[in-house]
Predict the structure.
Amino acid sequence: MRFSKGFFPTVKEVPSDAIIPSHQLMIRAGLIRPLGAGIFSFLPIGYAVMKNVMQIIREEMDAIGGQEFCLPALNPVELWEESDRVRSFGDTMFHVKNRALVLAPTHEEVITSIARNHIRSYKDLPQIWYQIQTKFRNEPRPKSGVLRGRQFNMKDSYSLDASQEGLDNSYDLHAEAYKKIYSRCGLHFFIVGASSGAMGGSGSQEFMVESEAGEDTVALCDSCHYAANVEVASSGVAPAIRTKESHAIEEIFTPNIKTIDQLAEFLKVGTDRCAKSLVYIGDGKPVLIFMMGNDQLNETKLRTALGTDARAAEPEELSSLTGADAGSIGPIGLKANFTIIADKRLEGANGLISGANKNDYHIRNIDFNRDVKIGSYYDLRTVEQGEPCLKCSKPLRIVKGIELGHIFKLGTKYSVSMKANFLDDQGKEQPIIMGSYGIGLERIIACFIEQHHDASGIIWSKSIAPYDIHLICVNANSETVVAKSEELYRMLTETHISVLYDDRTNVTPGFKFNDADLLGMPLQVIVGEKNLKNNQIELKERLTGKRWTVAVDQLVGEVKNRVFGS
Ligand code: ATP
Ligand code: MG
């Protein structure tokens, strides 16, 4: 493609809402343009990258026996009522005004409706069905450019199996395919296991990249690759020590002491001797929770432990339930009946200090085995940076992550609610066992740029670059340079190398070099007057900035090696 004839609107300025590098660079390099909140046009150079990503995905999905569909984005709302997802998607689903239609945010329902009409017997299974198609989600906070759009492209696939082992196999095939897809695209990723109990499934994993732009917080071990969302992550942090002797409890005057740090400082003890108390209300009943020192309560873990939603008690509730304000609450002498639970770190601990349920007083020498009726100990704490990994004891890092893809054992959630059954080998009707697997294409592109850019622009990998090489005619006023550039453009194109050829006559060489670095093709071929006099052409590797020259007649061979070689 000739730069002079193509549409390459590179710009210096970016809109003020473009904060993260990928969003800025996708606009600056002319990959995308915003059309509305969370809505983007992909321009030719951006769509070229998208098509390369699609190709990689197709190859890997076909390699695991996937068959490509193209399902409609416009769906009858009744279909979504069958699975009760009009309700569960709520405002996230776009409804078409005056029509009983919705814009599909995903495609489990359509797939299940096809399956129930055509899958009859276990002999029709297994199946892997996929598509690459536009999804619509009315995200409440579209942000970070194409990372969270209201319209985006997803590769979604669905496995249909006759047995749990079949599902396990389809799931493993997808996990392997996903690893290949992300690796081929040139992404550094990690895998986070997550329990998906609430969704009726029996396993799920998220493929993520580390990025400041991420909305998930993940505990990551660089050594053994343990990775878990902080909502569920655990660490190997040491439990409280139980001393041999348990002394009698003793009330102490602690004027104006409100925080654990103040308390530890005032009593000259470690914060690990302090049992911090928190009051929550779950199902209308008060729950008293103990955490060690400054450990943070994790509300997701609390919800799992209690089996119900819970909220922090209001200040008025605190004093009426305990007789004291926050900061002086403890396990002894409570006014109301509490369910008392504690973090596992405090299991069986003694010599603890906690509030006396009397403002400005604390109690010391509390023995959790002797003085307190702890209902149960649970893992309730939020993991912190630097704590030892539960598996290998190396320090954990707490990082922000972006979800690139998700694989999920759905089980029979949709086949039961939508009655998609098959006859098993005993002739008995059974619900089809399903899996669902998604990859966001825009996220692959944006995350790639997050990981592969420098101050000058994007640095594409060979696998997804919009063009293999960027050919620059440096001196557009020199007849010999122009003639040689034209000749090389023709020869390279003939060898099936895709070339972006900067043939512009109205911009300076400096301008062309800047655009080449911004657009980020892996290899630049620079045809300039000086080198040409010595029968040489200059090459520049975008990633390293390394420059070298080759003889004119060796140029095509050298480029072919670079482009098609490993
Ligand atoms: P998130 O938690 O980020 O909202 P999700 O759990 O809703 O993601 P899935 O429903 O599992 O995502 O969709 C599969 C994939 O589609 C995601 O892994 C992600 O790559 C992509 N995706 C989801 N929502 C968006 C969006 N609003 N914009 C761009 N890509 C998206
Ligand atoms: Mg979402």
Summary: The chain is about 25% helix and 30% strand. Residues 196-201 have pLDDT under 50 and may be disordered. The CA atoms of residues 42 and 374 lie 58 Å apart.
